[in-house]
Protein 1
Amino acid sequence: MTVDIYYSTLSSPSLAVRVFVEVAGIPHKLHSISLGAEENRGSDYLKLNPLGIVPYMKRALKDIDSVFLHDGQFVAGDEISVADLLLAVEVESLRAQDATSGPGYDDLLADHSRLRAWMERVASRCEPHYDRALRSMRAMAVELAKKRDDPAYEPDFVTIEGLSES
Ligand SMILES: N[C@@H](CCC(=O)N[C@@H](CS)C(=O)NCC(=O)O)C(=O)O
């Protein structure tokens, strides 16, 4: 299966993803998005990725399941690496994105049992640091969900941000 990667040559995370898939021999197609020409803010790209940022992988959750986690316990084999942490935190960030619109985080991950099991492995391998570091992001998702129900509700982001320090 070929992974579609939307990327910019001026974006460091894009370059990291490109080098990773090339070194790992993962079949992929690169689609160049010009940040300078603001193609990432154009309606075609926003339809694809409403966040308007690069890198972006189409069907990313499916790709993580079938391409990145198909052999071994972790992304680069049976040992955890920084690739697992970067990817797991990126998946966790869907909590905030989907608290404001679209399906919730649990619904998004519902059909991805391999992905969920890997997320649990990453968290438990890095316990207690992983859950502690993610506390603010998870709390923010809860507060954003309240705001979705009541647009007048104003979450206290300063207090939420401080949670991970305690
Ligand atoms: N956490 C994201 C960060 C992506 C990101 O910040 N991309 C920047 C370029 S490095 C971007 O697309 N900026 C465009 C914008 O914000 O309008 C990732 O690692 O993929």
Protein 2
Amino acid sequence: MTDRHYKEFNIKDYILHIYRDYRRYVYAGAFFIFGLSLGLSNLLFTGGDDVPETTSEAVFEEMATAAPTEPGAPAPKAPRETTISNTPGDAPITLAESLELIEEGEGEVVLKEIRIKRGQGLMDALVDSGADRSDAFNAIESLSDHFNVRRIQVGQKIDLSYTPDGTLERLEMQKDFDHLIVVEGDAGNYEGATVELPSQIITRHASGIIDDSLFLAAQRQGLPQIVIVDLIRIFSYDVDFQREIRKGDQFEIFYERKISEDGRRVQEGNILFAKLTLSGKEIGLYRHTPSDKDFADYFHEDGQSSKRALMKTPIEGARLSSYYGNRKHPVLGYNRMHKGLDFSAPTGTPIMAAGDGVVERASWYGSFGNYVRIRHNGTYKTIYAHMSKYGRGIKKGVRVQQGQIIGYVGATGRVTGRHLHYEVYMNGSQVNPLALKIPSGIKLKDQAYQEFEVVMENTNQLIDQTKSHILLTRDITGDEASVSP
Ligand SMILES: [Zn+2]
């Protein structure tokens, strides 16, 4: 590890950077914590002119789309706002604003910025800042028409203006990313209003090579934690992140970021496209809201939603000959739990992978005979037993797609006749495949697929635009950083 002096120097340097450019805070914060905790101080910021950060192995691009705030855009599930107004870079602006007010001849208005402390109500906070108790009460009354004041959060920032004689005349509070609540009044008569704040959505593109984990690789490319978590979430149906990530795998992400008009606030938006290249195999996902659905989902290029069910019957033209549950064992003769389903079918009938995944085992396994086990994600595995032979190329470590032939019905192992014995494991133990309640996947077809194709095309175009925008900038500055295709 590097020596302590170097690290201290970097910390100071880092604080200076925050002062100069608050936007950096969002990226630098993630880098800083990560770097400090691992002692990888060489990963801390080393300056540069502006975002994006660029390394030789990966690029980070962004561009402003002309799109203003979309009123119809679905609200993100989790709060994604990154408040950066509490950085030191904020202070000079507040000062400037106050000077401006004074110059406008409104008297010596006193501006105060307060934050709700733990255990403090809004009333206490206003009175503590110098408001008259009845003024505070009236102001809160007006505020409550626009905001549930009981749900005020610790740390909530409120800007207050007092007249020269100490009367509260204005209260400003950010309601959410797009709305500001303003309460104004004189002589105890307050009027509240919700003001819509303009913002801009920019798109950002990042890609990189995974050396250790996707999380760390993405963080190194300046992706905020909330976006990385989202990235992992959307791939969680396809990928087992504990096991499937290998050194040299790649990621690509294209997502939205909302920036307030004053540039002070940032809110991370939706991932529009993401791609993982795992052991050379690409898995791409596009965000799309089918016209008959209320919410967006992620889809593979072929129109298959990423949230897909395991096939309950991984074989066609078979008869369910034995259910899940207690039964008298046909060979051993005593009662035992049958932890799967038996499908009776002619020898040689193809057996399909119940879902996308990685083959964990494809070899003889005692009484199961020729046996295949597939790991679908961190939660589900399926097993297939008594097969006469394996599907083409099916062996340990191979990635398979839902519906791919992994073997053929047979009578190997301890059996009385040819059948497929099929089990589903959930978190390590067998469950009844027929009782499974996992997100049902949809596959876009016909008209629905054509709509999706348009979305894919638009997204791809936007990605190209975002990349070329940066390329243009680089040409001007003469930066020779490489850009991934
Ligand atoms: Zn069985």
Protein 3
Amino acid sequence: MTQAHNSMDHFQENRSCKECGVTYTIGQFYESCSSNFDPPDRYSDGCDDYCLACWLGVGPNDFPPMEDGDSGATEFVYPPYKG
Ligand SMILES: [Zn+2]
């Protein structure tokens, strides 16, 4: 299989993060956080397998749930985890 890696289908395809299990599309992150696809974050290297938050080390699995309601920028809203 030789598919162009930058097609729109690729961006719109539903993916499941291998770390936190969230369903995402690359496109949803590219719209709001396109700068993270460039160095130094290089999310373009991980966007196939991980959501942006996990790639950046700020995913739900990186911070155990705590009772702090005020953690600054909450750009992403995660749906309930479905095992
Ligand atoms: Zn994730």
